[in-house]
Every structure is written in C-alpha cells, then in structure tokens.
Amino acid sequence: MKRTTLSLIAVATALAAVTGFASLTTTDGPAAPAAKAPTRLPIERAGLACPVPSTSEVAETLYTSYTPTGAGTATGAPGRADRPTAQLRAAANTTTSGGASKGGKTPKAPKVPATVTAPGKPVTAEAKGPAAPALTGTATGTLAPGWTVQQTTVVPAGGARGLLGLGCGAPDTDFWFPAASTAKERQDYVHLTNPDDTSAVADIELYGPEGALKSQFTEGIPIPARSTVPVLLSTLTGEAAQESVTVHVTTRSGRVGAAIGSADEKLGTDWIAPAADPASSAVLPGIPADATSVRLVAFVPGDDDADLKIQLATATGTIVPAGAGSLHVKSGMTASLDLKDLTRGEAGSLVLTPSDPKKPTPVVAALRVVRGKGEKTEVAFVPATPAISARATVADNRAKATTLSLTAPGAAAQVKITASAGSGGGTPVSRTVTVKAGTTAALTDLVPEGLKGSYALTVEPVSGGKVYAARTLALPQDGTPMFTVQTFVDDRGTVEVPSAHQDLGVLD
Question: What are the tens digits of pLDDT across the range 416-425?
C-alpha cells in the first residue's frame, strides 16, 4: 500500500480558506448552499527511505534527488517562516538474524548531501564502499510534491557485482515482494528502514510453491527509531531452499521503508522493489529487447485460485507468448513460469488478466529478467506497477544509457514526457507522445539540450487510456551488460481536501 499524507496544518488552512466564503444564514433564511467538490492541494510534506546500498568494498553509489516543476504552491506551514527543504540523513545500521551491517555508531553520511534547493534541477551525491549508510529524508513545502530519490550503485567485481538501481521508497505498513528466493546461490536481504523518532515492529511472511514456509524470528522484529535492519531470508526458515518465494512485510506498529537486495552468484545483483497492491490484473513494463531469460512469479493472497492470461505488449501490438499463454496460481502459493524466447529482439511489457473476466482474483506479480550469457550476465527485477494517474518521475538517467518504456494495454493514450535539466547543466525538453492501444513504445532519444550530468524523466498522462511506464538504465562494463529497471509510480503530489460549509445560523 502506498500512501501520501497532507499535514494537518495544510488541511486546516484549506478548510479555513473555504469556510471564509461560507454564507451566514438564519433558520428562516435561504437554504445553505450545497457542499463544494473536494479541492486538490499540493502535499506539504513527503518522506523517503533508502537502504544500505552495498556491503562491497568496491561499490560506488550515486544518489540523485529531484523535485519536478509545476508541483503546486505549497510553501510550508502557514504562519511560519520555514524554508522548503528536501534533504537526506544517515540512519543507524542494526544487525539482526543474518544481518550484514554492524550495530552501534551511526555511519558517516555521503560527503555531499543530496539536498534539493529548487524544483526542476537534480542534485547528486556520491558514496563509496561498504560504509555508506541507509538514508532517510524529508521534503517540505514546494519541494515535497513529487520529490524522488534514485539510488544507483555499481559493483564492478566480486560476488555481488552488477548495477543496482532503486527509487527510494515512501515509508508504509504493507509490502509485497514476489520473485525473492532462499536458493543457495542467492543472498536475498530484506532491508527494513525506520525513518521516525519512535520504534517500529514488523512481521515477515514467506510463501513458496507449496504455501507458507515454516519460519522463525519473523514475528515482532524491532526496528529502532532512525535505524535500518537487514534480514537474510534464508535464515528465516529451516525448509528446503526455494528458487521462487513471495515475501510479505507488514508492521504491527510504526512504518518502515522496505526493499530486497538480491545477489545471485551466477547471474548478478539488483534490488527488488515492492510490487503493486493485489489486483485482478497486472502490468509489468520495460522488458529489454535483448533479454535472454524472463521468469514470471505470481502469488494469490486470497482464498481463491487465479487463472491468468499472459500477453506481451510489443511495439506493434499484443501477442500471446508461444507455449506460455496462461498460468494457474493456487491460493497462498507462489507460482512461477519461465518465458523462453519471450521478446525475440523486441522490447515489451507483460500484461496479466483473468482468463475468465467473471472470475477476477487479486494477485501480486514480478519478473526476474536476465541479459547476457555464460559468465557475462546481469539480472534485474520488474514488479507489477500501477498506472500513472497524474505524474511520476524516475531520476538518474544518462545520455545513451536510458530507455523509457510506455505501455497502453487498453485504449490508446497520450502522455507528456519531460527530461529535466541535468545535474551539471542543460536545458529541459518536453514532448507529447501517443502510445497506440495494446502496444509498448520504447524511447531512447529524449535528452536535455546541452546535458551535463544525469537528468530526471517525468511522465504525465494527457488523454486516453491508462499508461504504465518503466526506465531501463544500461551501463555495460567489461563485456557484462549491466542494467537495472525502475517502474514509474505515481508521485501523489496532491491530495483531496474536502470543502466545508459553515452555518452560523441562530437557533430559535
């Protein structure tokens, strides 16, 4: 579940503005006017959490912090002279079962804080080696609506070598992670980061192909205030190793940021971001054209089984993958399907719908995608993602390394795409793109003029059907096609505030 909240002060201000125009009536006077429709106002405060980027001595991490322009007019708490801020700070690392971090002192933050000072320009910060901590941050005022932070790590060698990308997540209370694993060749850590000043308590549930895995140390996991806890999934169960596992993280108290860091000794490494909430259909956008292996993992959290129709939205239309047009998912069990030769050299997006529209069953889903062959492979994960309702942004894009995938599984759609100024300079550019019904459009040429550094891509629906999007960042090294895929999640930069009517009539 993804939530964005508006500060109580902002709500009070909005209500005051509305009630200021309320008419004064008596019991004998005219009837009170009908209540006005809710007003959408920019959020006043946003929070994010970034996990520990890597334990490798040779890791190099780039944080990119960005707030899009045109986010609204929020200026901070009314009656106060607070300046808008958007800043990250270090969280203490705490060890738990199978944890990889050392407890005790708070580690040093990146040398240059990734602090945004104005909308429209990305700000970057670098960190090296295993000492880089988990980060939490808050944006306020005009910098809050749409604030995003991208964490990109390159590990050029070792067992965790690869390109790891993650959009730092909003703290919440409920997360689903299909495509995790307890296999011997995998080291999957779920990172729980508490951004608040009070402690949080979390539970972790694991589900394999035969149902819930018997586990230990998974209930009542404490996450101290302003700290992060990494948990190695394979240490939570004594059952046989499972290649595909669904992880469900919930909190009993407080809220956390959650992400899974996955390292495969053969395939590579990347982050697994939370999947969209359970729904009867799912879209998984941004499968690279040269993918050599694609595995679909799905899970049904309810009481009914699900029969899913599998389709691939390509540049020319929607097709059914050869020999893989359906998947049966039993209730409470993780199902997986290897989609061999899925893309055939053409980028696409996977679309899951009920085989029988009269029997919709909520599911969660994700893809494990591999590029390359032999010892020169790299892995990335694509979770099911919701459609963009208003606006979504992914930061840290690079010239000649970024592919933007847009999918319209239903009706044709128009979207506005904006490439921001670069972190080191450049002029933003915008373009309106039409995505044909049932297709995926892959764009590689939308780059700021005079670009220096990295830039952000913002997608805003204009008209037509629902649109889903993902960004692929490809940074090959020494013949290994290192890459990472991040889906676009609506930034919920505004919130509905109910209008109010004040009746100051005098009772008889």
Answer: 999 999 999 9
DSSP secondary structure of 331-366: BT-EEEEE-TT-STTS-EEEEEEESSTTS---BEEE
For residue 159, give both structure tokens. 């067992």
**Residue 19 confidence class, pLDDT cut points 50, 70, 90:** very low
The one-letter amino acid code at 66 reads Y
Of 50, 39, 47, whose CA–CA distance to 13 is shortest? 39
pLDDT digits (tens, 9 = 90+) for 105-149: 555 555 556 789 899 999 999 999 888 899 999 999 999 999 999
Q: What are the backbone dihedrals phi and psi of residue 413, each rounded to the nearest 5 degrees, phi first?
A: -145, 150
Distances (CA, A) of 17 to 6, 10, 74, 239, 292: 16, 11, 14, 59, 57
Dihedrals phi, psi of 307, to nearest 5 degrees: -115, 115
Q: Report the Cα 80 to chain-centroid distance in Å.
A: 33
Q: Alpha-carbon Rg of the chain, whole angstroms?
A: 23
CA 242 – CA 184 distance, rounded (Å): 9
Half-sphere exposure of 368 (CA within 13 A, CB side): 27
Task: Please answer whether residues 208 and 334 qualify as being in contact, where contact means their C-beta atoms are separated by less than 8 angstroms.
Answer: yes
- Min mean pLDDT across 26-30, 68-72, 152-156, 285-289 is at 26-30
